[in-house]
């Protein structure tokens, strides 16, 4: 393919990243590229630091006292370090958005949930909002189900629909990177399939980093996979490689279900 | 089945039943007492419960006396109290929950606010006498009275605000921050709207307590006999709004009641009971409103 090399450039890259919850050293010397318009999956046993790592990317840790970053996450093409104290977390969250483990729609209408990110950026023209809301809901494969009830409460949607609504909310502001933290762990198989198809569709436009407990899911949706253990990256490679011929024994033991 | 287990289950069931009965009785004790009190007041005061009782000034003659100045006084005091306590209380509550760092200093502030809610109201009266009447020279006025009661209910408003805010799940805040909202935007679009029900409930319960307060108002020098109304807040000429009523002397319902109770003539006891009925009704009405608002908001937002 002609643009293959261009697609293989990293959108972001963790370099010697360390993270501390006060005294707890949760991430240790992490080096990991996040490829542009690809899906990178993070797998590993419970408590190994997947969520912690993910939340570094949009500086969610800054919301709580005592948390500290060391090292870098470089955002390309500018190459600036988004975890440095000089980088403004609010500005970073404007371009790196997040979808949480449990759907967390706001107790507002479907429309207002999606429009929220635009409203806080000062956009209030109805025509602009209407267009963006439709585009985002389409992008999140929710438009057909939601178009006739845009003014209804988001709480009336099913769990899977709520999660897609949260994806639409994250998409509305045209993020450069989308973070997913086990986005289907609270959903049934049908809703899970929908979200997985959606993720594969979304990577045409955005760079995706996804945490998952489900190995099949990682295999289905991701291009490359990183295996984490005790706060470190044990192995990072193309997803097929990781699942067929991992180079580390620990990785192999984990994906064959011998621990974790 | 083993007989011992059966016996034990029977015993546990009896315990269960016993508690249900005990709980029911305890509930009814409160209800019956309140009902009896209201009924008794009503029976004592019923011959004065007429329209003219509401629209007459106090008088030397019990049959002609009414509660107009006390009603208006109570109402205006509440307006001042609400205007002062609501913005201050909500702002303080939001600050403490959303902005203040959690350290020893905010811990002390927190403990102090909880303690303030338990300070006897007459102590607030003394504080207000020194602060508003003597130091700030606001006089023995509606403004002073309203501010005094605002001090009294401020801790209640702060605590209601904090509790309502604390009920909002972290996931909602994180959802807001995750798309790039600032703290103030999160407060404005989420924290405030979602906690309105709880805050309103707290405010109304605070105000319904304020409306019955006597001691602090007597301390700052509320009169017991007022046969005129303060100047109207709306005037015929520019700028159409007058604030002179703020500096007018005042009386309030419970003080008017106290005045009548302390008179020797039995006719005045009837007036006191009638005023008591009105006061009770107003309090019950406000509490009912608080419950209604809470119900409405609970229906809309379920976490
Ligand atoms: N707020 C916190 N304060 C202190 N330690 C924390 C905090 N949050 C997480 N940790 C610790 O950091 C480590 C990594 O936690 P993290 O939530 O990132 O794990 P995870 O890989 O996402 O696990 P799971 O698969 O169960 O979600 C764990 O040992 C956890 O106990
Ligand atoms: Mg996690």
List the helices and strands and how they pair.
The complex is a heterodimer of chains A (260) and B (303).
Chain A: H1 4-7, E1 10-21, E2 24-35, E3 39-43, H2 50-57, E4 67-75, E5 80-81, H3 89-95, E6 96-99, H4 110-119, H5 126-139, H6 143-146, H7 159-171, E7 177-181, H8 189-202, E8 207-211, H9 215-221, E9 224-229, E10 232-238, H10 239-244, H11 249-255
Parallel strand pairs in A: 3-8, 3-9, 6-7, 7-8
Antiparallel strand pairs in A: 1-2, 1-4, 4-5, 9-10
Helix pairs in contact in A: 4-5, 4-7, 5-7, 7-8
Chain B: H1 3-45, H2 51-55, H3 68-99, H4 104-116, H5 121-135, H6 142-166, H7 170-178, H8 183-210, H9 215-220, H10 253-261, H11 266-300
Helix pairs in contact in B: 1-11, 3-6, 3-8, 3-10, 5-6, 6-8, 7-8, 8-11, 10-11
Bound molecules: adenosine-5'-triphosphate (ATP) and magnesium ion (MG).
Please explain how this structure is put together:
The complex is a heterodimer of chains A (260) and B (303). With 260 residues, chain A is of the alpha/beta class. Chain A has helices spanning 4-7, 50-57, 89-95, 110-119, 126-139, 143-146, 159-171, 189-202, 215-221, 239-244, 249-255, and strands at 10-21, 24-35, 39-43, 67-75, 80-81, 96-99, 177-181, 207-211, 224-229, 232-238. Chain A has a 6-stranded mixed sheet, with helices on both faces. In chain A, helix 4 packs across helix 5 (126-139) and helix 4 runs parallel beside helix 7 (159-171). With 303 residues, chain B is mainly alpha-helical. Chain B folds into 2 domains: 2-46; 51-300, MetI-like (MetI-like fold), CATH 1.10.3720.10. Chain B is 73% helix and 0% strand. The longest helix of chain B is centred in the first third of the chain and has 43 residues, at 3-45. The chains are: A alpha/beta (260), B mainly alpha (303). The complex binds adenosine-5'-triphosphate and magnesium ion (MG). The site of adenosine-5'-triphosphate has 12 residues of chain A, from strand 2 and helix 2.
